[in-house]
Amino acid sequence: MSEQPETYAAAAEVGAVRKRRTAWERFVLLMKSAPPSAWFGMIVVSLYILVAIFADVLAHYGEAEIHPVPFAPWSDEFVFGTDQIGRDVLTRLIYGARNTMGIALATTFLSFLIGGGLGLVAAINRSWLDQALSRFVDVLMAIPSLIFALMLLSIFGSTVTSLIIIIAVLDSTRVFRLTRSVAVNVAVMDYVEAARLRGEGLGWIMRREILPNIMPPLVAEFGLRFCFVFLTIAALSFLGVGIQPPTADWGSMVRANASLIQFAKYDITAAITPLLPAAAIALLTVAVNFIVDWFLQKTSGLRE
Amino acid sequence: MTDPTDHRPEANHDILLKMRDIRIDGYSDEQWHPIIKGVDLTLRRGEIMGLIGESGAGKSTLGKAAMGYTQPGCKLSGGSIMFDGIDLAKASDRQKRQLWGTRIAYVAQSAAASFNPAHRLIDQTVEAATRRGVRPDAESRADAVELFRALQLPDPETIGNRYPHQVSGGQLQRVMTAMAMSPRPDLIIFDEPTTALDVTTQVEVLASMRKIVEEFNTAAIYITHDLAVVAQMADFIQVLRYGEEVEEAPTRQMLTRPEQPYTKSLWSVRALEKPEVKGDDIVLSIDNIDAAYGPLKVLHDVSIKLPRGRTVAVVGESGSGKSTTARVMTGLLPPLSGTVTFNGEVLPAALKDRSKDQLQRIQMIYQMADTAMNPRQTVEDIIGRPLEFYLGLKGKEREERILELLDMIELDETFMDRLPSELSGGQKQRICIARALAARPDVIICDEVTSALDQIVQEGILQLLLRLQKKYNITYLFITHDIATVKAISDEIVVMFEGKVVEQGLKSEILSPPFPDYTKLLLSSVPEMDPDWLTNLLENRDI
């Protein structure tokens, strides 16, 4: 406030003090304020993403390439040995990052599209449509989701597409609940009423008036949902109905090599082999959760 | 400070509080900003000092500093606070805690938020006195009853046994004063204690506060933005702006002969009054409206006519159906029966059946500018959207029109890319006015648009609305419960009570006797800028 007129003037009223910054300055400040746990999470996630993108370059062998020796021990040729039919474990781990994460990401996006969209419509509409959607979601949520997913997968078959759609639909119930509950609080604000009075359509109110104001909890939920979807896919693969061979996937890798664990007393590295994909899953889940925690803490003021 | 009309007590001229060169910084956005920039304040025993200024002037911060307290995120960066020989600026937390609640008390704006809902009023009233060992508990309780009586609370013997939710807002504010008074402090800080109250309740609370402070010869700092209120309460007035002192003088001198141009501008806005003009060309009317929320019927046979280019003020207390009337006009609440007629044609009852053109002609401005603007949109988006939506303006045309509109509301192009959170309360309301204007409406419905604002800012907004009306011949429906605002802006007045229209007519007719009872009570409760107003009112009304 440089000029201070002697009498009252509207433009000279004291508002909140806030310095203007460029996007880059804000980003640097944000990064500086990140705690070590968030840094750890961000570094791990970036590494995973890099591995997924450059899988073709990083892997020594092809994803489904079969070598003559099954269950080969750790060596220079096969860093983590080979699996039950002689595929290089390291290569499959690298490709697994791409497959598992790609499918999990696609599923999470789809579930947010379905759950978020319907949740917003229900929050704005608040009539029989809200009731119908909410009760239907209650019914879906009443059925244990893993068993439900198993059932649906055995009906529709375990293709990647049906896997994505089924998990996305089942998971969208949670997204629907969250979106509806935060959007209901925003939908009663005067600025939404002002938009309705202006004659704006449903699409504008959803996207421009409400969505920007409920982003922080949704983004945080996205991180958590991603983890759950990821674990669900791994669990389904472990049970044999998830991602089908020869596509590399961490869940099915654990299952395929699980029997190796009983050789721990003869060769400790053999016992570690089935644990490697499990560790990859665990590490990513922990890392994403660290980031989500930090983000939630940063934006908790915005959630009201 | 030797004004003959000054009525501070002759005895007890010793200085209780002496603040010198107070500097307080606030931390925001990774930087320290000065909030108070070297203010002095001297208070003698038994004196009441009024602190006034716009919001953001530093009134509350200075008031709290008088206790040696700074809010989290603020720090005292310089100056001394001598309270009865103790420098609170240097005192340890332990020393300060011993003073707080016993020798210095604080009465906050929102009594409802300051009481613990799980404990009885009397327990909370005597807590400080008992726990600090001022006197035994039984004596404190007996004393509290006397204080309740002195504060004219109903049933002083038993009201203390109630819980905070069982008494009204005005009573709660008085109990809070009793709580502050209980240890017989030397200094009480009142931080906007009546701002949240209805105007009719405010009078009673003011009267009892002044009585009790005088009775015990307690010194007080009274923080408010209401000039008329401070005129009733204070011996001295200090005007603050931008964290600096503008002027300090005894009340009467300050009211009659303000010296600084800023103070003069504060005083002059109080005098705003629009000359009424009768209008016959009815632009919008509602006839025989009955409306209900579910099974609850709120409007009974309401008819209101709005003459073109005039202001019709709708007054009444909360729950009288003022806002519901507005909702019927805009189509948000379709009425059970009755019609809304605009420019001679009957409007569809429900919002979704009205055409874009009909929507464009009637715009609305809300009470809380905070919630009326999307916090994620910039000023440019907020004002620009109606331009795009109704008028189809794009690119350069749109930008030019936004600048014109900003100019109309006395803001400039630096506001274009600001978010609502970067604006002051008055500026926010101005942006809302610009958004309504952007649609080029015939009628603007103003729902309590000034009641959440400081008085000074209020007057600025009212003047702006009047100027715009003159220039563009806009019709206002002005919903308010504040008679001063009504005087300032209206041509015609509608008085509502319990969902019915009590009176309707030109301002001069409604505001002159004979009055129906309700109108009379409403009118007599509005504080005036005369230091004797409260005294005279109490003598006449005998509360």
Describe the structure.
The complex is a heterodimer of chains A (304) and B (543). Chain A has 12 helices and no strands. With 304 residues, chain A is mostly helical. Chain A has a single domain (57-302), classed as MetI-like fold, CATH 1.10.3720. In chain A, helix 2 (36-53) crosses helix 12 and helix 5 packs across helix 7. In chain A, 37% of the residues are buried. Chain B is α/β, with parallel strands linked by helices. Chain B folds into 2 domains: 47-67 and 95-269, Rossmann fold, CATH 3.40.50.300; 282-512, P-loop containing nucleotide triphosphate hydrolases (Rossmann fold, 3-Layer(aba) Sandwich). Chain B is 37% helix and 25% strand. In chain B, the strands form 4 sheets. In chain B, strands 6-7-8-3-9-10 form a 6-stranded mixed beta sheet, sandwiched between helices. In chain B, helix 14 (379-391) packs parallel to helix 16 and helix 15 crosses helix 16 (425-438). The chains are: A mainly alpha (304), B alpha/beta (543). The A-B interface holds A 1, 4, 6-11, 13-19, 29, 189-191, 193-194, 196-200, 208-209, 212-213 and B 26, 28-31, 33, 54-57, 242, 260-262, 264-266, 269, 330-332, 351, 354, 356, 359, 363-364, 366, 368, 371-377, 385-386, 389-390, 409-412, 415, 421-427, 430, 435, 439, 456-457, 460, 464.
SSE blueprint:
The complex is a heterodimer of chains A (304) and B (543).
Chain A: H1 23-32, H2 36-53, H3 55-58, H4 89-125, H5 128-142, H6 145-156, H7 160-187, H8 190-198, H9 202-239, H10 250-257, H11 268-272, H12 275-299
Helix pairs in contact in A: 2-4, 2-12, 4-5, 4-7, 4-9, 5-7, 6-7, 7-9, 9-10, 9-12, 10-12
Chain B: E1 15-28, E2 31-44, E3 48-52, H1 59-65, E4 74-83, E5 86-87, H2 93-99, E6 104-107, H3 111-114, H4 121-131, H5 137-150, H6 169-181, E7 187-191, H7 199-215, E8 219-223, H8 227-233, E9 236-241, E10 244-250, H9 251-256, H10 261-269, E11 282-293, E12 296-307, E13 311-315, H11 322-330, E14 337-342, E15 345-346, H12 356-361, E16 362-365, H13 369-372, H14 379-391, H15 395-408, H16 425-438, E17 443-447, H17 455-472, E18 475-480, H18 483-489, E19 492-497, E20 500-506, H19 507-510, H20 517-524, H21 533-541
Parallel strand pairs in B: 3-8, 3-9, 6-7, 7-8, 13-18, 13-19, 16-17, 17-18
Antiparallel strand pairs in B: 1-2, 1-4, 4-5, 9-10, 11-12, 11-14, 14-15, 19-20
Helix pairs in contact in B: 4-5, 4-6, 6-7, 14-15, 14-16, 15-16, 16-17
